[in-house]
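Many introductory courses stop at the sequence. We go one step further.
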Amino acid sequence: MRAERVRRVLALGRHDLRVLRRDPAFLVIFTLMPLAFMAFTRDAFGAAVAGAGPDSTLNGAEQVVPGATVLFSGFLVGNLGFSVFREHGWNTWERLRSSNLDTVELLAGKAITPILALVLQLVVMFGGGALLFDLHIAGPVGGVVAVAGALILMEVTLGFMLLSLCRSVLQLNAATNVGAMVLGGIGGAVTPIDTLPGWAQAVAPFTPTYWAMQGFTDVVVHGEGLSGIAVPLAVLLGFAAAFLVVAALRFRVEDAKISWA
């Protein structure tokens, strides 16, 4: 029975991957655009992160690579919701509901493509940062992977929560784009936390982006291992749990959704 459930979930995931392959423009743009963001901003932030002194080897990539990763991954938060709205626009949502898929399987299948898109984006971000911008990671790569995994989990559950709260695709699009910019800015993904106004520095710890940046910085700059990033990981997972609870309480599979169609 469990194998059958997994098969149904994977079948839905493969369907969404085929849809993405036919129209990958959104993913390509938000995967390549951050590389341009890094190119334009690395030197600008070089002095800010090299404040350790003349012997510092920091070159600005230590801020802009994690920052671009956290900022632009936020624009993919709505992917799970967009997939569901697309089904409503195509009048296929009711067909999925009437299939053998239960609600958990349906949402798990819909989460596969957003997760893989985020994984691809983060691999390109850090891979491009290392190859193109001389990013040096002082700590273990496993630490970066752990923070990235917690970030992806947090963003997928945030996407689920937004899906449960938004009635129209325009609402979801606005919430995703505005949320990415606001959380990225306050959380230190656009500029280092130390350069933000005092009020923003006080608010920053209440945002998940702050803890993602803290975790990446601890590994990339300070060389921390898994034990040294336990707090950022725990907070990111706590945000994910909170988003999931809200989504589970609010989401109704029978709710009508207004799409472009």
